[in-house]
Design a protein that fits this description.
The protein is of the alpha/beta class. It has ten helices and 20 strands. Strands 1, 2, 8, 9, 10, 11, 19 and 20 form an eight-stranded mixed sheet that branches. A four-stranded mixed sheet has the order 5-6-4-13. The longest helix is centred in the first third of the chain and has 18 residues.
């Protein structure tokens, strides 16, 4: 029995799904978002994200989206009508040895080639002028002044609220149980509130996307992963304005408005058997914290106040799959963001909405799901587990 019919069904209400829903609704389309839990709640990636807004270090395939998104972030709070706690403090990628500094000297021209022309190589002295508390061993850094940070849950909820104000409908606490297909066309989805018919289904369900497409016989080169975040006890605000990372270290550090530090960098936890929960790893907690203190020694005066993981979908090539699904008409993918989708979410939402409207979106060419056909099926199977 069909419970609802809509023009576009968006599966997943995270920052990517909600940005897509917002941009579609602004075009005047009828949009239904079905979210199995709530918007930006544990353990979804949009709840757990560190909220970095960066360009430098992007793959060239993401460069156009990164340029667009970073240019838009300063005005996004006004557009969405919410405080996103956005701050454009820049991004510092630091080097601790001369060899690492030479690596940055080769890295910076690559950033310029992608259009990130304000990125520059700075020496240790200038690095400490910008971030006085970095370790004395830091000899150089790549500085991207246009980058920054924001609050990921706030941003996700702001996109969802703006989508609803523009006419989108949200079903939260409702699971999508299966995609509905006839032949090579996806026609909608079976949900906890009945079947939904849709002209277009957008799959943006993060770490759970592969489960849904497997039901129609499509294997995605993605897998779920649990990545850790640490929050420190509050220090004096204003000790670090930039988002800080380091060459050859798994690390990201930023200071929040209340003075606490948010520390990440891709340290792993374990996903529960139900794929809806996680377990922290003590070696990841201690290793991440020690690494952060080595780069930012002022952190040693604090302690870990809280630790958690977010469940991410990582792709086989660490690039998202955005666009029409192979083999199935009516299905659009926005999956596999591999831990770096938050910053580009405003541009992804705009691009996917334009693509569905039939407009040219060359900025998505390098991220097309059509590249799945070029992958070795056995490699995909091994990667996805």
């Amino acid at each position: 029995m069909t419970a609802h019919a809509t023009e576009t069904l968006v599966v997943g209400g995270g920052v990517i799904g909600s940005s897509i829903a917002y941009h579609l609704a602004r075009q005047g389309r009828r949009v239904l978002v079905v979210e199995r839990a709530g918007v930006a709640v544990e353990p979804a990636a949009s709840w757990a994200s560190a909220g970095g807004v960066r360009r430098q270090g992007r793959d060239p395939a993401e460069a156009a989206l990164a340029r667009e998104a970073v240019a838009r972030w300063p005005s996004l709070a006004g557009e969405l009508g919410a405080d996103l706690q956005y701050r454009q403090g820049g991004n510092l990628l630091v080097a601790e040895t001369d060899d690492q500094a030479e690596r940055l000297a080769r890295f910076v021209p690559k950033q310029h080639a992608m259009g990130f022309t304000d990125v520059r190589l700075i020496d240790g002295h200038e690095t400490r002028e910008l971030a006085p508390h970095v370790g004395a061993q830091v000899v150089a850094a790549s500085y991207s002044p246009g980058d920054g940070q924001a609050n990921a849950p706030r941003t996700t909820r702001a996109f969802a609220a703006a989508a609803e104000r523009s006419g989108a409908v949200y079903w939260t606490g409702i699971a999508v149980e299966a995609l509905l297909a006839r032949g090579d066309r996806v026609l909608g989805a079976r949900t906890g509130r009945g079947d939904v018919a849709a002209e277009t289904v957008v799959l943006a369900a993060g770490a759970w996307s592969d489960e849904l497409v497997s039901g129609i016989g499509l294997r995605l080169p993605v897998r779920a992963a649990a990545y850790q975040m640490l929050r420190s006890t509050p220090a004096a605000p204003g000790l670090l304005r930039q988002v800080l990372s380091a060459v050859k270290r798994s690390l990201s550090i930023k200071q929040l408005p209340d003075g606490s530090f948010l520390v990440g960098g891709g340290w792993p936890g374990d996903i529960g058997r139900d794929r809806r929960s996680y377990r922290l790893r003590e070696p990841s907690i201690s290793g991440n914290w020690e690494t952060a203190c080595a780069i930012l020694p002022v952190l040693a005066a604090q302690r870990v106040d809280r630790a958690w993981c977010g469940l991410e979908a990582e792709s086989i090539d660490a690039l998202p799959l955005i666009g029409p699904a192979p083999r199935f008409a009516g299905l659009v993918l926005a999956v596999g963001f591999s831990g770096h989708g938050f910053a580009i979410a405003p541009a992804v939402g705009r691009a996917v909405a334009d693509q569905i409207a039939g407009r040219p979106v060359p900025e998505l060419d390098g991220l097309s799901p059509a590249r799945i056909a070029r992958l070795d099926p056995e490699e995909v199977k091994a990667f996805a587990g």
